[in-house]
Specification:
11% of the residues lie in helices and 42% in strands. The chain is built from three helices and 19 strands. The longest helix has 11 residues. The chain is globular and about 65 Å long.
Length: 238
């Protein structure tokens, strides 16, 4: 038998989390068989957009890379129902967790959105990668560079002369200080959310560490993002 759970909002709330419409069980990796690995697990973070399309898969925890690779390949074959806010489908960031056991049914499969804590104690045992939340890091890491949110004058997105946009965002910082899977939780100007996320992708942070070693960090913070006003849209990079 396989166990499956999905975190959802309260029944009276019109907000819901992402759910799986169709899933395929991952195979036990051949690498693990040949290396005598008796079990393993992986957690993957990724977007699910308002149409239920999944993209940008990022391993955030695993016992061995082979389990993360197998889970990522399999998730691409799943079908999702998007999260909803006030009854309207929205883009969100999800975490998928899978525990692998050879020649047996999957023990645990859970899907979470980032409003819910993924249990860091699940599947305890040998692991080579584990993400950490802000309060777990050796020290609070700061943003070292940010290019600004670009808005074209006359575009109608914002009143000209605005200097900043306030937004609460969650995102991962990788072991090199780069931003992965940025997502606007809420902002003063929702029509600019896509531009906020694009700008945050270009930001840099101090390297996150846990017990002196580089790690992946999951952060949720509120910023006043500076606006960079342009006369026209910049040319797209090929």
């Amino acid at each position: 038998m396989s166990g499956f759970s999905v975190s959802i909002a309260k029944p009276k709330d019109s907000n819901t989390s992402v759910s799986i419409k169709r899933q395929i069980e991952p195979r036990y990796p051949g690498w693990a068989y040949t290396h005598g690995i008796s079990s393993g697990y992986a957690k993957i973070a990724f977007y699910v957009d308002e149409y239920g399309q999944a993209s940008e898969f990022f391993p955030i925890e695993y016992s061995y890379p082979a389990f993360a690779d197998e889970l990522m390949v399999t998730i691409k074959k799943w079908d999702f129902l998007p999260a909803k806010q006030n009854g309207v489908p929205v883009k969100s960031v999800c975490h998928a967790y899978w525990e692998f056991l050879p020649d047996r049914a999957i023990e645990t499969n859970a899907l979470f959105d980032t409003s819910k804590r993924v249990d860091g104690n699940a599947g305890e045992g040998y692991r080579t990668l584990k993400y950490r939340e802000d309060e777990e890091l050796d020290s609070r890491i700061g943003m070292t560079s940010f290019p600004g949110v670009t808005i074209v004058r006359g575009s109608g997105l914002l009143q000209e002369g605005r200097k900043s946009i306030r937004a609460r965002v969650n995102f991962f910082v990788d072991q090199r200080g780069g931003v992965v899977l940025p997502h606007v939780v809420d902002s003063s100007d929702p029509q600019t959310n896509a531009r906020l996320e694009a700008a945050l992708r270009k930001a840099s942070f101090a390297l996150p560490t846990y017990q002196g070693e580089p790690t992946i960090a999951l952060l949720e913070r509120t910023y006043d993002f500076p606006i960079l006003w342009l006369q026209e849209e910049p040319a797209q990079e090929l």
